[in-house]
Amino acid sequence: MxxxxxxxxxxAQAEVTVNAxxxxxxxxxxxxxxxxxxxxxxxxxxxxxxxCAEVGRETAxxxxxxxxxxxxxxxxxxxxxxxxxxxxxxxALCVAWSEETLGYLHQLSCEDPLTGLASLAHVRARLSEVYxxxxxxxxSTNTSHALVVVDVPLFAxxxxxxxxxxxxxxxxxxxxxxxxLAENARLVFSGGETIGLASPSRLVVVAERGxxxxxRVGLLRGLVEDMDPRGTRARVWIEGLPPSDDGAGLLLDxxxxx
Length: 258
Fold this sequence. Notes:
Elements: H1 2-14, H2 36-44, H3 49-62, H4 66-80, H5 87-107, H6 120-137, H7 141-144, E1 145-151, H8 170-188, E2 194-199, E3 202-208, H9 213-227, E4 235-240, H10 245-257
Antiparallel strand pairs: 1-3, 1-4, 2-3
Helix pairs in contact: 1-4, 2-4, 3-5, 4-5, 6-10, 8-9
């Protein structure tokens, strides 16, 4: 926030001379860093959506949070036009900032190295992508995608009675079991679906709906049941997605708690 505070102090001095700056020349306004192109298009009376999108990506790459980026956009508008940013400018900046941030998060390690299962945070990010894509394409997420949930009481929480693994820690055995479960899930859902771990006993798949979804779920159910020698009533079911992205987050939290 130190950069923003400095810009505000500079702005207090620059506002006195705004009227003396020719239209189209914003160099004397001391605009926030990276917002000069936005200011120039504003002063020329041009659409600023593309410039706002570019500055949204740049501020995200710089590590600025969204609140700071919006404050700088507001400062730019105030110094060039004496008003507030319009909806199109705000939307362009926010969408670009969010996409750049998500892209960065996806580059980070989001999979468990042993099981290959995605983290719950990565599953959540993938769901957000699904909702944005549905909104842009005018489709409903309830008809385009679903969550496939696998719930199994893990036998690896304690060693198998009388078995050779009595000396193996429960945590390591659990990871090995999950690796087998993940392998079976990827065998069934081999089209690049996001497969993640929602809780120690629940796996979740972000899958596209279609004629093959139900048969795949049945196949996965059979594979999971064959894995567990104790027959602990493994469950595999399909969860429909709610209308909103926020609702999907709440649903994922509920699945994780269960």
